[in-house]
Amino acid sequence: MDFTITSEVVDKVAKLTLSGELDSLSARVFQKEIEKVALESPTELVLDMENLAFMSSAGLRVLIFSKQKIGVGLTIYVVKPQESIVDTLEKTGLHHSVNIVDQYPA
Amino acid sequence: MELKTFPAHVDSLDPLRQYVKEISQQAGLDKKATYNLILAIDEIATNIILYGYQNAGLEGIIDVKTEVADNQLKVIFEDDAAPFDPTTRELPDQEDFDLPLDERPIGGLGIYLTINGVSEFKYEYSNNRNRNIFIVDIKSP
Q1: What is the pLDDT along chain A (106 residues), one digit of tens a residue?
Q2: I want to staple A57 with a disulfide (CB 3.0 to 4.6 A). Which of A74, B3, B61, B109 is the partner?
Q3: Which residues of A touch B104 (CB under 8 A)?
């Protein structure tokens, strides 16, 4: 399934909408998008994953990269991830570092 | 045993996942077991493609063999890259998982998800080929 990503930054909130499948090929596109929004020094990163059907460790690495690139003050929200993706975040302990939410803003 | 060959390129990851998904569904794996197997094979295929072949400047293939027997689905990847046993990699542990994101080591996540995603994961090197073997128990509905 093709991967697509859109992004916008409004008032220091970077909102990215991901859909399709996030593997090591599409993770490069995701990382470029993070690098782009990082230029605006956002304080919140909102990742809408409702239509993301697959995420490999390459996607997890971009999440880690986001925090390292933008800074420790960054708060990451993962909005409406599918159950299998929540499972991956939990298995790898990343759910401690991101906020899994049903909607943003809450 | 069925055999399908994929070029060792990142463009193959998507069709490879689709192929294993179809095989898993035919074998009667449930949604969760199917997803976890697909995640496992994606991680290992990525390693073979990027580190086995591409970083070594090589072009090559991954042979995917599949078999259902004794209530198990077996998927075997064979490749001709240099010998690499993913099970010898140091895995992240609970201490790593408790670290804040900006201090997390970035490696080892893929193989961790692989081993956790299947009933058994094995590696062999035979006839000058890497063999990565994924075994999933098929639970009766």
Answers
A1: 689 999 999 999 999 999 999 999 999 999 999 999 999 999 999 999 999 999 999 999 999 999 989 988 899 999 999 999 999 999 999 998 999 999 998 7
A2: B109
A3: 64, 97
Domain map (residue ranges) of chain A: 4-101
A-B CB pairs within 8 A amount to 78
The contact set of A with B (CB < 8 A) is: 1, 21, 23-25, 54, 56-58, 60-61, 63-65, 67-68, 72, 76, 84, 87-88, 91-94, 96-98
Q: How far is A58 from chain B (nearest CA, A)?
A: 8
Which residue from B minimizes the CA distance to A66?
B102
Cα torsion through B29, B35, B38, B39, rounded to 10? -140
Task: Indicate the CATH number of A4-101 among 3.30.300.30, 3.30.70.1350, 3.30.750.24, 2.115.10.20.
Answer: 3.30.750.24
For A3, counting Cβ atoms within 10 Å of its Cβ (0-12 exposed, 13-18 middle, 19+ buried), the class is buried
